[in-house]
Amino acid sequence: MYSAMRSPLVALFLSVGLLFGQAKKPAKKPTVAAPVAEAPGQWILGTVGVGKQKDGSMDSTGLKGLAVRLGDDGKKGIAYDLDLCRPIGAWSGKFTTEMNLMSRGDYPTAIGETIFVTGDFAGFMPGADATSLAPRKGFGPLPVGQARFKGFHNAGRSVVVRWELGGVAIDETAEVVTANEVQFVVRTLEVAPSAKGITLMLGKSADAARIVTLGAAKVDQLDGHTVARVDGSKDVTTVRIAYLPAGVPLPQSFDTDTPSMLLKVAKTLWPETVETTGKLSEKSGEAYVVDDVKLPVTNPWKAPMFTSAFDFLPDGRAVISTFHGDVFIASGIDDKLEKVTWRRFAAGLYHALGLKVVNGEIYVTCRDGVWKLRDTNGDGECDTYEAFNFDLMVTKSFHEFTFDLQADPAGNFYVIKAGPVRKGGRGFDEICDHHGALLKISPDGKKSELFASGFRAPNGIAVSPTGQVTTGDNEGTWTPVCRLNWIKQGGFYGVPPLAHKSVEPTDYDRPLCWFPKEVDNSSGGQVWVTSDKFGPWKDRLLHLSYGTCSLFGVLPQEVTFNGQPQMQGGVARFNVDFGSGAMRARFNPKDGQLYVTGLRGWQTTATQNGCFQRVRYTGAATRMPIALAATKKGIKLDFTCELDAKAAADAGNWNIEVWNYVWSAAYGSPDVSTLETKVAATELGNDGKLQFSKTQMSERKHDPLTVKSATVSADRRSVFLEITDLRPAMQMQLKYEIKAADGVELRGQVINTIHALAE
């Protein structure tokens, strides 16, 4: 997957040729490592390490980090831990390594010589008389009332970071200062009026001799660290901290004034634009066709276009994020797509996998939290990155992506976080409270709560106009195959280690539908049809497949299961295909058509790294299933068109099979007969855990059902299939070969799940 990315994304090794002589064993020149891939841009958000040791470990690592390039030449840097509100450390030499697509433990690390580092303690303590540093406890930000990260803004050659400590705002920037031909890093902090003052962590005590404070600060030692104690004041207090080279005193010419960058937002960083010409579908006679909104693959920012999420501004412009942390605004999206103009709006975000526009404001879900991106000076790009909600817990697991961003009618936001799947896909790394969790965030971003749990890798969610939440999930440990979940608050959806309950569940909430691998081997998100310009699907749910790059209409049915309301049903595939893994979809308020984006990163049939495409309803006749109901007497199937009564009434034109899966700690499940009661994993995997054998996985034990009769409704839009031995099944495959009333042949299938049979 990495070959499609620009070369700096992956560290490659170059070997030199052999020297051949008369010796039987030719001598080899030593292998020479290629230059380390350096991250572009002024800043990068991610899990950041400073102070690399010989064994590859880091002196100091921030799980939610912000690294900032410093100096005119960009060869110094500083990184902040946004959970602990501390500087991770600073360094000299280059910036950081890049972050590869999947980040399988390969996070940005400082390139060069360490200037200073800090330990896993809070960067600020309330009061000038703190007696101890606050250590990291578990994962996530500091408790409410302690220091919190609020965001940062672009300040040209640096950034200004805002912290808040007990309601007291603290603005911080770092710069490279040259005085008497000596270069050194300087942090400058402006502390708002505070009655009690603050205690500020500066660096480990080993660096004390090189740390000099200027302004209203007293230097002290605490818990192995150099700290600065700043007394309370009715006025704004300025503190400057100089980190000097070894043996170099502070130059007398050092300017003690607050740098102007702390007060102003800098000039525009990305004024360039790129124009692309889209391609309209050449298909004729189809109800739905796919138009390609061409991405700016070649661009002045050298940005990889692994598109991950999007939404529309009220004026019809699209806002599109990428996995690598860019956000672009595309204008000129009209019927012909002849001139689409792209401009970079934001950069440096940490795995941006969700985006939502609310009241014209842009919100983005990243691995570290939900950001609000603001253009405060009206120059067309984001200058203020506001930490809208930063409650998310982050560990070092490569797999714990935070997916999607949706909102309900009351203004609450929803994000969903994957589990910490181990390399190889089986089992989980260290688990935190948010792994495998669907989180609900208040409209103001100040509160978050666990809404549902037990998800493995849910790449996308949807919220209906009435507030109903859905999500998919992907095959793996405790997930037999992919599934579409109809969410209820407090529900548990299958993965016991990620249930976040005192006792692991022994049962789970059933999905609306399971998916065979050939139908959907890696689920994307969903979208509700809010447009009346999309044919007969208004007010219905659509499902995306990342793995098969496809689109499905959802056919839900409400039944009673175990005495409780339960959604079940199936899906019918649209005759469309996407260039990349389909992840996010939204309706454009201007043209009422469906737009889809996604990327190629893990298992998928995708041919492109990213895509932005339009599913356009042409007005031609639609010919596909649109509703399904399973009853004790058989299956009722509704179509969007009139059927040829003779063909539809022929029971031989309908073929039905059913089977079950096994819910277990093994990876995936074989197809199991509904008549079997006990099927278990029999072999040990490399991790020592039971897994299904190759024979079990290859043998598909499907049960055929007999269609006794097929009855066509009076309007010829429905067929009732009488099935005498119909029974609940995790998976049903209903294939048909019939005709529409106009003679067009209809060949297709419905994939569905039956939990209970209605009357």
What does this structure look like?
By secondary structure, the chain is mainly β. It folds into four domains: 2-33, no CATH class; 44-262; 274-620, 6 Propeller (Neuraminidase); 627-754, Immunoglobulin-like (Sandwich). The chain is 1% helix and 43% strand. The strands form twelve sheets. A ten-stranded antiparallel beta sheet has the order 16-19-14-13-12-11-29-28-27-26, with no helix packed on it. An eight-stranded antiparallel beta sheet has the order 38-39-40-41-54-53-47-50. It has a five-stranded antiparallel beta sheet with strand order 5-6-7-8-9, with no helix packed on it. Strand 39 and strand 40 form a beta hairpin. The radius of gyration is 29 Å and the shape is elongated. Mean pLDDT is 92; it is low at 1-24.
Relevant terms:
759 residues; mainly beta; Neuraminidase; 4 domains; ten-stranded antiparallel sheet; eight-stranded antiparallel sheet; 2 helices; 54 strands; 1% helix; disordered N terminus
Brief summary of the model shown:
This protein has 759 residues and is mainly β.
What topology does this entry show?
Blueprint (H helix, E strand, L loop, with lengths): L12 E2 L3 E2 L7 E2 L3 E2 L9 E10 L5 E13 L5 E6 L4 E11 L13 E8 L6 E3 L20 E8 L4 E7 L2 E12 L2 E10 L6 E7 L6 E5 L2 E5 L2 E6 L6 E7 L30 E3 L11 E5 L14 E6 L5 E5 L4 E5 L8 E7 L7 E5 L2 E5 L4 E5 L9 E6 L12 E6 L5 E5 L19 E5 L6 E6 L7 E3 L5 E5 L8 E5 L26 E3 L7 E6 L12 E5 L4 E12 L2 E10 L7 E7 L6 E6 L10 E8 L7 E6 L3 E6 L5 H4 L5 E6 L23 E2 L5 E2 L2 H5 L4 E3 L1 E6 L5 E6 L5 E11 L5 E10 L5
Antiparallel strand pairs: 1-4, 2-3, 5-6, 6-7, 7-8, 8-9, 10-15, 11-12, 11-29, 12-13, 13-14, 14-19, 15-18, 16-19, 17-18, 20-25, 21-44, 22-23, 23-24, 24-25, 26-27, 27-28, 28-29, 30-31, 31-32, 32-33, 34-35, 35-36, 36-37, 38-39, 39-40, 40-41, 41-54, 42-43, 43-44, 45-46, 46-52, 47-50, 47-53, 48-49, ...
